[in-house]
Amino acid sequence: MIKIREITSKSIIAKSNLPDTEYVINPYVGCVHSCIYCYARFMKRFTGHNEPWGNFIDVKINAPELIPEGTIKYRGKTIYMSSVTDPYNPLEKKYRLTRSILENLISLQPDLCIQTKSDLILRDIDLLTRFENCQAGLCITTMDDSIRREIEPYTSPVQKRIEALKRLKEAGIETYVFIGPILPFFTDWQEIILRTKSFTDLYMFENLNIAGTVWNSVENWLEEKHIELLEEYERIYFTESGYWDNVEKEIRKFCLEQNIIFEIFFHHGKHY
After folding, report:
1. Mean pLDDT in each 10-residue stretch from start to end of the chain (272 residues)?
2. Which domains are present in the chain?
3. What is the value of pTM for the model shown?
4. Cβ-based neighbours of 100, under 8 Å, separated by 6 or more
């Protein structure tokens, strides 16, 4: 049972700590996609919720009203939607906060970057095309939809995301694929690239970061569904395996051979 709470917020555009991003907008607190690897679960301690991460969401019902009018402050500044939620999580169908925020941002003309795991983004193509600079990204963690249902059960099927990416590109919007988190033995990043490169401008890569309580969640999943891989994950993460250094090298080599524009954001600090 998902706990839904409507709240009001004092502000909606926040300074960002993310690389290459000046501001972030999060229309919701929490997310109901229930991804087992979600790094944003640290947000729970600021919410007052007792429910497990993925089982609650706070809806900032006044968020669109907090977008300022008649200012040039954000023109040409990067605004990213969203850093600790998905702007197109299933509740967006009802509340339409993301759509209303986009409508109010158009006159401010920031450099918009919006990322999701949902093909609901297609609903707002009419708004996204009105930004002078807009990047729209789909996150893809695996091409295997049965695995997708295990690790991110309430997200859009993989093929729907690919189709959404293609339609965004056809609409003239700059597109990217966020391949992450890369799950050892489950994320075929080469296949993802080959399936999408004809309508993708940029690829971003991030590895699975097990900080905080993420490891407990991933460990439980492996024990339940893929016990044969648990020992390998422990080797990768708890010994000096060099695993991610090798993955970085493979990604870099492949992308250069394919003439692909790419960025790597691995939690041990390297960035290409």
Report:
1. 90 89 94 86 67 82 96 96 93 97 98 98 98 98 97 96 98 98 97 98 95 92 98 95 95 97 76 36
2. 3-265 (3.80.30.30)
3. 0.92
4. 63, 64
